[in-house]
Amino acid sequence: MNDPVFLNIKKENMNIRPRRNRKNAAIRAMVEETQLGPQHLIYPLFLKDGKNIREEVASLPGNYRWSIDQLLPEFEKWMNLGIMTFDLFPAVDEHLKDQIGSYSYADENFYLHSIRTLKEKFPEAVLMSDVALDPYSSDGHDGLVVDGKIVNDPTLDILGRMSVAQAQAGIDIIGPSDMMDGRVGFIRDELDAAGFQDVSIMSYTAKYASAFYGPFRDALNSAPKSGDKKTYQMNPANKREALIEAELDIAEGADFIMVKPALCYLDIIHLLKENFATPVTAYNVSGECAMVYAAAKNGWLDYDRAVMEMLLSIRRAGADGILTYFAPDAARMMK
Ligand code: PBG
User: Fold this and answer.
1) Whose CA is nearest to atom 8 of ligand 1?
2) 21-37, pLDDT tens digit by residue?
3) Alpha helices in 97-224, H assignment, sequence order
4) pTM beyond cutoff 0.90
5) Out of 48, 97, 207, 229, which one is annotated catalytic?
6) How far is CA 332 from CA 83, 126, 294, in A?
7) Helical H runs in 31-174?
8) Which of 48, 97, 229, 260 is an active site residue?
9) Percent helix, strand and coil across the chain, each rounded to 5?
10) Domains assigned to the chain
């Protein structure tokens, strides 16, 4: 972006009145700087094995753990609203979890079967996955836990297998959310070696150790069993470190770089947008959405206006795409 042109405002220039460009809807629309449409939205969904399941996530009202049969008719409605991209997360039964997350790439994994079904029914939809150990791990961490430590390189092999299994099922975009070092390059190599050059990678590039993931961890029952995620997720105090992460991810082959969460990190979105040509996405995470649901329910906020202002601000900061639980409501408001 070019530097803004500053007016050298003096007392004799006081005939300049910015309000003239806000005086009616047509002029406001003409000078509007940021666009927000359904094409910018990515809707995160929670999948569950079984039939006839539609369990509401208490802290994210209006969002459910879906079995595939219940999901299909809804999927069509969302697509009719113009939402084309969906990020899928598995809610895995506790008895299928182990220390190495082996269910994540097992043939019988319902999540892989659901991807296959969705791709068959909606070939024009863009399906994005989650690649991390936590929903499958009995330790609830994104990497392997060895002697109480989250180890990096031994985790990569499982992330690679998971990615190839998802690509075989028909996923369009792989979403590594684990923050292990070197995983984008490792996954890229594994995908290419298996013949999946066209499968994209949206890297969780600057993912912070945030308090705002609570409702998501409730939805998947994926909270760490001990410790926290501070040895792999970023310190909320850090900004320049996001540049290192972005440079590495791009060099390793990321097609999109993501900032997560979005609202407390608008400066990071802006920073990556200004410094890199790779498209930037932002994850408007569960806790950020839960705050609005709760306040609106109490009558403390106007839900529609708050949602649109948040999404617009994330776009204004520089996000090309936004992952948000508000996607269907927002798309409805845009109609
Ligand atoms: C896990 C993962 C998390 C989210 C997406 N992928 C949670 C975490 O890192 O603990 C959070 C999404 C949200 O809060 O909406 N790899």
Assistant:
1) 213
2) 999 999 999 999 999 99
3) 110-121, 153-169, 183-193, 214-220
4) yes
5) 207
6) 10, 19, 20
7) 68-80, 110-121, 153-169
8) 260
9) 45, 20, 35
10) 36-334 (3.20.20.70)
